[in-house]
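Final paragraph of the annual report: two paired records, presented back to back.
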Amino acid sequence: MSLTRRTVIATGLAAAAAPALSAGAHAAAGKGSSNAAYFSLGYAPHEGSFASRGALLEQIAFAADQGFRAWEDNEAAKRPVEQQEAMARALSQRGMTMGVFVASMPKWSDFRPVLGSNDNGDREAFLADIRASIAVAKRLGARHMTVVTGFMDRKVPEAIQTGRIIDCMRRAGDIVAPHGLTLVMEPLNTRTNHPGVFMHSIAQGYAVARGANGPGVKILADLYHEQIQSGNLIPTLESCWAEIGYIQFGDNPGRKEPGTGEINYATITRWLRARGYDGVIGMEHGNSVPGREGEERLIAAYRAIDKT
């Protein structure tokens, strides 16, 4: 997910505020039309991607003017309602799709929640977070919400923890599915950023999603984390595709824009396009260079992988 769980990161009804990611939909948006060609895929910047352009709403407007078709905001649930509504209006006016926000945030310093433990308290608190997130999703026009399945309990066999987490995610999925929402579980790498987390690979997420067995639970495939933990990105996506609900980019090492590390994102975008993927792709990374120069490099990096 984040760089420190990152300090980064319209109107009304979910259906109205989550337009299809297609050039036609954007051409019909009317207000604030773009002055640049739309990207062929739904890359989603976040607050901080274009920090030099102003505050949150100014950054959304700038992103739209560069042809970006989506937006992502991990921190959206923590924002005041008025700001959530203003963001939703801005996205709607620009014909942009809202990507994920975090529905339940781990307590990183406490290594909690432990959803597979013998204590049911963390599971009930997690489900309470999920219930509370529904109103936020509807306000923002979001259809996907990020969750992290917590940390390992070293006193409980991993197979038992897996079963308990499957049960917990099934319950969570049953809460959101009637609202047309999907929880996307994010596997996080343990080698660089998040030692001790329970879910650390897309393959592990696939097993939990299959066990939960419902439209309300899928995987968030953050390719930065997967490259560190497992590699073999395209075969893994192919094998687990039925349970992948959302994708995020970030190069490795460094977690910056495509082209700054070892991941061949041009090949991955070709694969996604061939697959017919029309969802959001979160730009879950920082800029390799500060200021406006870095913002221009960011745009150029996505132009380079998008046209291949």
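The closing record of the year follows.
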Amino acid sequence: MDFGVVLQADPPASAVVALMRRAERNGFRYGWTFDSAVLWQEPFVIYSRILDHTDRMIVGPMVTNPSTRTPEVTASTFATLNEMYGNRTVCGIGRGDSAMRVAGRPPNTLARLGEAIGVIRDLAEGREADVGGGHRIRIPWIKNGKLPVWMGAYGPKALEMTGRLADGFILQLADPFLTEWMIKAVRKAAVDAGRDPSDVTICVAAPAYVGDDLGHAREQCRWFGGMVGNHVADLVARYGEHSGLVPEELTEYIKAREGYDYSHHGRADNPDTAFVPDTIVDRFCLLGPAEAHIDKLRRLKELGVDQFAVYAMHDAKESTIDAYGERIIPAFAD
């Protein structure tokens, strides 16, 4: 199993770079950041610095979207980083939650997202692609480019698209029951599309907090249930509360959700997450001593998870990264 760390690009950028370097020293192979231009600093600028100050780490957004930057700009940016530092990038992509809503625009449609996945990958790898209206372009300076594109998804149509089109699946929660349900949906879609389902990398991303004070850890990670709740609310609006298309375990907890202020997005002091019960925090996150993390990660690995990405957005970033390096990542060494 690979391990990644996910950070917000809060200033100073030097602190983000330092944490990524610390993560690489501790055995983390992937370095991810949020990508929301108003809420945080520009991640692609920071990626260049991270790549320059690490040796093996693969970097990318969790997740970008096809409208903040046009697909050809996204492809060219990734290709530039790859040309400078070797093929050490991955494109996590989704419809765009905070990035679009903070700018006063709705998230992208799945149709636009599906088109962008192929265009970004083709252009970044030096192939010709249609960027709209039948206009085909190729970026001529790209040689030996490589860019896997991983899609974030929850709902049935998005899961189907992931299995059909994407190189990887990003699931932002660590509940084994829901993980199993969603992996099965992605793999079925891959098979239906004539693909080998093992070609779709499975990445589970969630907060992890290593420590014995479970109550404090829950409060530091409760924000995550609110963030996931934004996506669940979209699913309920689309499919209904009891559609049978989305597990009740995912939709039940948002009944008390009253609103969401993106200025607190992904932060431990988010006041809009009181509706998230302890049971959801425990199910969606990894909390407690190192042994509890190892036990849950083993369950996730058995379900087919290839990477666990630690959301380090709490008051114990350094100690959690170090604990993973000292006790948890070695337990999964091949």
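Residues 176-192 form the longest helix (17 residues). This concludes the annual technical report; the extension proposal builds directly on these records.
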